[in-house]
Amino acid sequence: MKRIFLLPRFAWIALVPCFLVLCSVREVPPAHAADGPRRIEVTAKRFEYIPAEITVKKGEPVVLVLHSTDVAHGIKFADLNLKADIGTAGTSELPFTPDKVGTFVGHCSHFCGSGHGTMTLTMHVTE
Question: Which residues, 6 or more positions from 81, have their beta carbon under 8 angstroms from its beta carbon?
């Protein structure tokens, strides 16, 4: 004799909505993909960048949003051919897409006082 497995009516009431939800689920792209380039906020002040190190991915569009809290500063990554000026207590944006992997050191490109030579921002570009 064949046995047929039947669920009670209350079980079907719970299972049908679950099945419908599962059927409607689809892959959603990450939120940052639709929002444009990754934005990284960096603050420049005598004689440091905060944060002092950042990490980005090769091929990922990035915008460095640079803020000065005091005098005019700048940033120059010679190996990446990137440069931006930041006005006194101002903001500047530096859009770019890293095209090589490595660790790169950016230096302040505006003389800002006695510690100017030690003002660096390290950028790690990973695969």
Answer: none
What whole-number distance in Å separates Cα of residue 111 and Cα of residue 99? Answer: 29
56: nearest Cα among 5, 117, 97, 26: 97
CATH of 37-126, one of 3.40.50.300, 2.60.40.420, 3.50.50.60, 2.40.128.20: 2.60.40.420
73 CB-near residues (< 8 Å, 6+ apart): 44, 45, 66, 85, 86, 108, 109, 110, 112, 119
Instruction: Determine if the pTM surpasses 0.85.
Output: no
Count of beta carbons in the 10 Å neighbourhood of residue 121:
23
CB atoms closer than 10 angstroms to residue 2: 3
Q: What is the pLDDT along the chain (127 residues), one digit of tens a residue?
A: 566 556 566 655 665 665 555 555 454 445 445 578 999 999 999 899 999 999 999 999 999 999 999 999 999 999 999 999 999 989 999 999 999 999 999 999 988 888 888 899 999 999 9
